[in-house]
Amino acid sequence: xxxxxxxxxxxxxxxxxxxxxxxxxxxxxxxxxxxxxxxxxxxxxxxxxxxxxxxxxxxxxxxxxxxxxxxxxxxxxxxxxxxxxxxxxxxxxxxxxxxxxxxxxxxxxxxxxxxxxxxxxxxxxxxxxxxxxxxxxxxxxxxxxxxxxxxxxxxxxxxxxxxxxxxxxxxxxxxxxxxxxxxxxxxxxxxxxxxxxxxxxxxxxxxxxxxxxxxxxxxxxxxxxxxxxxxxxxxxxxxxxxxxxxxxxxxxx
Amino acid sequence: xxxxxxxxxxxxxxxxxxxxxxxxxxxxxxxxxxxxxxxxxxxxxxxxxxxxxxxxxxxxxxxxxxxxxxxxxxxxxxxxxxxxxxxxxxxxxxxxxxxxxxxxxxxxxxxxxxxxxxxxxxxxxxxxxxxxxxxxxxxxxxxxxxxxxxxxxxxxxxxxxxxxxxxxxxxxxxxxxxxxxxxxxxxxxxxxxxxxxxxxxxxxxxxxxxxxxxxxxxxxxxxxxxxxxxxxxxxxxxxxxxxxxxxxxxxxxxxxxxxxxxxxxxxxxxxx
Lengths: 253, 272
Ligand SMILES: Nc1ncnc2c1ncn2[C@@H]1O[C@H](COP(=O)(O)OP(=O)(O)O)[C@@H](O)[C@H]1O
Ligand SMILES: [Mg+2]
Hints:
The complex is a heterodimer.
Chain A: E1 8-21, E2 24-37, E3 41-45, H1 52-59, E4 67-72, E5 81-84, H2 96-100, H3 102-106, H4 112-124, H5 140-153, E6 158-162, H6 170-186, E7 190-195, H7 198-204, E8 207-211, E9 218-223, H8 231-236, H9 239-251
Parallel strand pairs in A: 3-7, 3-8, 5-6, 6-7
Antiparallel strand pairs in A: 1-2, 1-4, 8-9
Helix pairs in contact in A: 4-5, 5-6, 7-9
Chain B: H1 2-10, H2 14-50, H3 56-59, H4 62-74, H5 77-109, H6 111-126, H7 133-140, H8 144-168, H9 172-180, H10 185-196, H11 198-222, H12 228-237, H13 241-270
The structure holds adenosine-5'-diphosphate and magnesium ion (MG).
């Protein structure tokens, strides 16, 4: 495949992860190996509770693998990662502007140049009218957009999205999904989107990874052959239902 | 659409005007009733005393209380007593709040310390502090140091428990978010845990104001030679109910004033 020549953004090498609690141990991932290339938009689907969030936590360096290796840009230490969660997690006591500057403050990069870059990003993606508002004054969709701009603020090379649309109602979900995909494509980011929604995976991603039930393992990888990039247009295209059927079957074996 | 929304804000419909008027009238009525109850109680009290239905030597009376306060103010001793109690209460409150918050911070920082010290805090919380009175007198003498110590003791456990509750209730999703940005524990504390605990802090201040009054008056009951608590105990011993009631009335006003100050601080801090 041509992608073999591209640079690897993220690689899991035979990763195993076991959670230890008082009640016992849970293997959440076993013999997990996959690669994400730079500029790729990957969707990861799997039955609920199979270990999807665990995969992202491993990629973000929040968890250390029990065995195997996780490499980001060929290195073991993780940096330059933007994590977007299911809830927007905007801080209610900060304005939108202060919220999207948060990663700069944490990364000790709170300089006028970086601020200007973040504000330009906010302007480009239609957030500039809301900068002085507090999160409670925004709609759910607008809050998720603010969360995306915050995720992009530190200019991460790799975006991790953990079911970022699942808390929204259906109508908003389609719109925000469309927007988020446009932003990620526009900024040419490498992204991994975790979801339990098959149609969301098909409509967003370049490639879909299917995980098995717990302990998670990659059972299939499908390259999406759409000419369209827009999720809404993909949903209308003729291949869509074909892919849906294939992935549905693989999830329900 | 926009035009309509604007008009609605400035001039209200007759229906809405009526509603607003009703609400305003209700507020005025509630306040009038409040004041009415107070005046009624004072009036009945005064009448019962004047008509000698009950001996005013036992129940005192509003006019005698005012006279007593006037006498105390005239020879200046009133202000000494108020000053003494106020100082003990405020200093004890400040120390309990500051120290309690610091201890809670340390306990938030180290989960092990939290687990180790938990039973001690629970026992100290359920212990009636007045049981320590004799020990405190032996250690700190009978001056205001002992009373201050009692005040701090009464307040600090409540301060610790409330603040620790606030700190540990920090949203785990937001902690995860900060950790994914590579935040240090100190950054998580200053950017997230402290600001999100502001409501818990205000709630703790409100409780601790009450605790500080309990501590200082209790301390003065045990041993003292000045202060409102001293006046109350002394008045009871020499059977001067006027003095007891006068000191109690002043205490009521001071405690209400301090609570109002905290409520004001709440309004200022919690409005964004
Ligand atoms: N911190 C944890 N401690 C113990 N078990 C956990 C923890 N986090 C997740 N698990 C378990 O690991 C499995 C996978 O969890 P997760 O990755 O959150 O699944 P998903 O995101 O696919 O729903 C679940 O069965 C869950 O109970
Ligand atoms: Mg999950």
